[in-house]
Amino acid sequence: MKNKVTVATIMTKNVVKLNLSDDLTKAEMLFKKHKIRHIPVVSSNKILGMLSYTDLLRISFADAVDEDEDIVDTTVYNMFTVEQVMAKKLVSITPETTIKEAAEILSKKEFHALPVCEGDLLVGIVTTTDLIKYLIEQY
Known about the structure:
This is CBS domain-containing protein. The protein has 5 helices and 5 strands.
């Protein structure tokens, strides 16, 4: 396996994003539409936080039953904002971070996605799924 391959080669560049002004109903629709589990929260592409599908499930079990359901019960979501639910203390990496370094970070933390930033600006995202796909390609 190559030791110096950077996350720039495996990161998702066209990232689905949320703004603080977006609501949790929109977030759930994006999770389901794009079949993703993590959405960075940005302001003018500056990273502010990360919302995971698990974060939504923590506040509402109602939609955990059917992920293919298009209709969202917004009752619980109207009680919270994206800012209240998102993770704010983020660990971010740069495009030059090696895949090995990213894997080490994710293996030691309790989250499954890393925003890839140049300064404060979001340029991509790397998830545990991206790392597994990369590993599979090596065999």
